[in-house]
Amino acid sequence: MIESGLERVIPAFRSVCGEDGVSLSEAVREQHGRDESVHRCCPPDVVVWPRSVEEVSALAKICHHHCLPIIPFGTGTGLEGGVGAVEGGVCFSLRNMDRVLDVHQEDFDVTVEPGVTRKALNSYLRDTGLWFPVDPGADASLCGMAATSASGTNAVRYGTMRENVLNLEVVLADGTIIHTAGRGRRTRKTSAGYNLTNLFVGSEGTLGLITKTTLRLYGVPEAMVSAVCTFPSVQAAVDSTVQVLQAGVPIARIEFLDDVMIDACNRFNSLSYPVAPTLFLEFHGSEKSLEEQVTVTEEITRDNSGSDFNWARDAETRGRLWKARHDAWYAALALRPGCKAYSTDVCVPLSHLPQIIVETKEDLVLNRLTGPIAGHVGDGNFHCIMVMDPNDQDEVTRVQEFTERLARRALALDGTCTGEHGVGLGKRALLREEMGPMAIEVMQGLKATLDPKNLMNPGKVL
Ligand SMILES: Cc1cc2nc3c(=O)[nH]c(=O)nc-3n(C[C@H](O)[C@H](O)[C@H](O)COP(=O)(O)OP(=O)(O)OC[C@H]3O[C@@H](n4cnc5c(N)ncnc54)[C@H](O)[C@@H]3O)c2cc1C
């Protein structure tokens, strides 16, 4: 932003959200110019903290009038550089809008403001018997999760953000406020017109600022059982997954860790799981249905030479078991202290999963790269957590080439370059390959209609 422009707009911003709601401090701007990814920090020119949708709208109108880029900021846990202000501009930190607005227990839905995180929502719901299951590991904001179409370990049973967002309140670049399913609507089904809700889910802040989301809730299951099981090969672990799903077992989580990842988890959490392809599983339901799910799964995994079954029934043991999986990112980083990590995120149809994982592991060895694999295997989605020395240019180049090869391998197998992290800064060229020129043109047309001045999070996605 040019200096004179900045001088003109700051008093206007302050008149909307107060002295405390605007910051030009270098430290604050730097903090808002990066997420958890390896993308370099791109600080905005100014950070604002609106307290209501009216303030978001008023601030957006000022930006629109002065042609200033608008970058929405949730909790900054994104992994694709989505919050970097590549063209400068105004970061809208939405953390002060943190109210849980309407819990409809009988209808299993809730509406939240953008500062509410998934953990905050679940502790708010503690006494209601309800919970929100989409779980990206990090304690992300729910509107940020809608913006990136996040998912995580529970998606195989409960779906991703796409299946769980019922309505969104969005402020467009010119300050207009819309409700993507109509104001106050919160039905499970709708055939009413175009699906604007799912246009904004996954739009990564490039179409508007999400200022409310209405979400589906679920009953807390009567009982839960978790398990860890070891396999002689990747193929055997994935075959078990496919057969469990084909058998109609409503499994809640089924996560794959390769030998390198389980070794890293063992070291990081002082555990002693066998160093081999491993599945972490979880079942939700009534005591009776759990018995049946567990029996069928045990039979299938045994038929695929699964061994070393560890079952966890009480909450504490289950918590310990899943902590190992949730710490995978930090366990990977601890393999090479001082290094940085980048997580790939491809997703393929389930039947292609063994082939792509086996080829990817060969590629890692051939190119002398550290990339433990952890996967939401029930969805065909897996991560190579690439641990690298950012000061070693040769290694950085090898990682970049590897991640592109991996994404193209997924595209060749009818898959996608990103199952849940989004496109952000680094996957724009891959998105073009994935969608083809005509679909990209339609996306550009939609963007131009909603944001003709290209102010919303410029430089991302398209
Ligand atoms: C250790 C670790 C593990 C992770 N595991 C997973 C995983 O398993 N699955 C998964 O899906 N993700 C995972 N993530 C990534 C991350 O948690 C998700 O992408 C999350 O959805 C980002 O939410 P956020 O609030 O932090 O968004 P931010 O990082 O603040 O923003 C992400 C993008 O969304 C936009 N945005 C944010 N808020 C809004 C809003 N209110 N309106 C419009 N646009 C907005 C931003 O401009 C940016 O483009 C992981 C991250 C970490 C650090």
Automatic annotation (TrEMBL):
InterPro entries: FAD-bd_oxidored_4_C, FAD-bd_PCMH, FAD-bd_PCMH-like_sf, FAD-bd_PCMH_sub2, FAD-linked_Oxase-like_C, Oxid_FAD_bind_N, Vanillyl_alc_oxidase_C-sub2. GO terms for biological process: lactate catabolic process. It is found in: Mitochondrion. One of its GO terms (cellular component) is mitochondrion. Residues 40-220 form the FAD-binding PCMH-type domain. It comes from Esox lucius (Northern pike). It holds the Pfam family FAD-oxidase_C. Belongs to the FAD-binding oxidoreductase/transferase type 4 family. It is an enzyme of class 1 (oxidoreductase). Keywords: FAD, Flavoprotein, Mitochondrion, Oxidoreductase, Transit peptide. Its cofactor is FAD. This is Probable D-lactate dehydrogenase, mitochondrial.
